[in-house]
Design brief:
- The chain has 339 residues and is of the alpha/beta class.
- It has ten helices and 15 strands.
- The strands form three sheets. Strands 3, 4, 5, 6, 7, 14 and 15 form a seven-stranded mixed β-sheet that branches. The protein has a six-stranded parallel β-sheet with strand order 10-9-8-11-12-13, with helices on both faces. A two-stranded antiparallel sheet has the order 1-2.
- Strand 9, helix 5 and strand 10 (213-216) form a beta-alpha-beta unit.
- Helix 3 (142-160) crosses helix 4 (179-188) and helix 3 (142-160) packs across helix 9 (290-302).
- The two termini are 19 Å apart.
Length: 339
């Protein structure tokens, strides 16, 4: 049997292993993808550290996958060898839970997740169910497309479902791995985009990404600055600090909404009176389905939106993962297979 390289986690909190595995064969309703690039996401720590329930080890992580269909399993309709496809966090749905019955597949109670419930993209090849596939436009390279399958779709989908319309004032809290994409999406969607981050040194980058204004949270009171401008219709939070998120809520306009896609390690603190008096709201947003990923990819291609990436070869996955987890990676980290 032909072999492939794969980077697997043998068990919770164990070191990555670069191994040789047999190239898998697609089964009914699946395809085999020749992986060209796979982004490293902070959520890969669920597999690495064993914090997600029910993971069967050894497991190959990776849910920001871009590649080419290499083989098609039985009973697959509409997909063929040679198509460029991506796979994200959403890896399929059960079809029978309450969410699925209502067509809300991303909140499926029994949903599959690439790199967690089945082997992901830290490998030369992977198997994916057809419902998880998104077409990649020719304008996007594999390295460009990979991070859009999670960081991209999460911010794009949150913004387009936030209730904001073109011309509304939208603030992006944080301009790191998620936020630098969110600023680009918000600007191209026609919002009055305000970027918020720590330090005046990030102002030039924020403007380059498309922000009309920049607020330095180290030297300025963000909520007060937003109020001076009339308040934000939407604040999209991409940061992992509950304290930072809490501090900007009063900068929302009447009927404003704070949407968070970054997972804070500490709880939010908010004045209920502040919410009631101005009809403000706070919401979270998950990523989306494969169709949402495809929309993200197409929007990015049409509007020249790209992730800023640190690229590593597959065999240096352990080093790349540690770089991402250390916080030294300003934006996204991507593995490239060389295929």
């Amino acid at each position: 049997m032909a072999k492939m390289r794969a980077v697997q986690v043998p068990g919770p909190n164990q070191p990555f292993e670069l191994v040789q595995r047999e190239i898998p064969e697609p089964k009914t309703g699946t395809v085999r993808i020749k992986v060209q690039a796979c982004g490293i996401c902070h959520s890969d720590s669920f597999t690495k550290e064993g914090t997600f329930p029910g993971i069967n080890y050894p497991r190959i992580p990776g849910h920001e996958v871009a590649g080419i269909i290499d083989a098609v399993g039985p009973d697959v309709i509409g997909w063929q060898k040679g198509q460029r496809v991506g796979v994200g966090w959403y890896g399929g749905h059960c079809g029978h839970c309450e969410s699925c019955r209502r067509g809300d597949f991303v909140t499926c109670a029994n949903g599959q997740i690439s790199g967690i419930t089945f082997d992901g993209g830290y490998a030369d090849y992977m198997i994916a169910p057809v419902e998880a596939l998104a077409l990649i436009p020719e304008e996007l390279s594999a390295v460009d497309a990979g991070p859009l399958m999670c960081a991209g779709i999460t911010t794009f989908n949150a913004l387009r479902h936030s209730g904001a319309v073109a011309g509304d004032r939208v603030a992006i809290l944080g301009i790191g791995g998620l936020g630098h994409l969110a600023v680009q999406f918000a600007a191209k969607m026609g919002f009055q985009t305000i970027a918020i981050a720590r330090g005046e040194s990030k102002a030039a980058l924020a403007k380059k990404l498309g922000a009309r204004e920049y607020i330095d949270s180290e030297s300025q009171n963000v909520a007060e600055e937003l109020k001076k401008r009339g308040g934000a219709k939407v604040i999209l939070s991409t940061v992992t600090s509950g304290k930072a998120i809490s501090s900007v809520i009063d900068g929302l306009a009447i009927d404003g909404k704070l949407v968070t896609v970054g997972v804070a390690s500490d709880p939010l603190q908010v004045s209920v009176l502040s919410l009631i008096g101005a009809r403000r709201s706070i919401a979270g947003w998950p990523s989306g389905t494969a169709a949402d990923s495809q929309d993200t990819l197409l929007f990015s291609a049409l509007n020249d939106i790209r992730s800023m990436n640190h690229v590593y070869p597959l065999e240096k996955a352990a080093e790349a993962y540690e770089f991402m987890m250390s916080g030294k990676a300003r934006f996204r980290v991507v593995l490239e297979t060389g295929q």
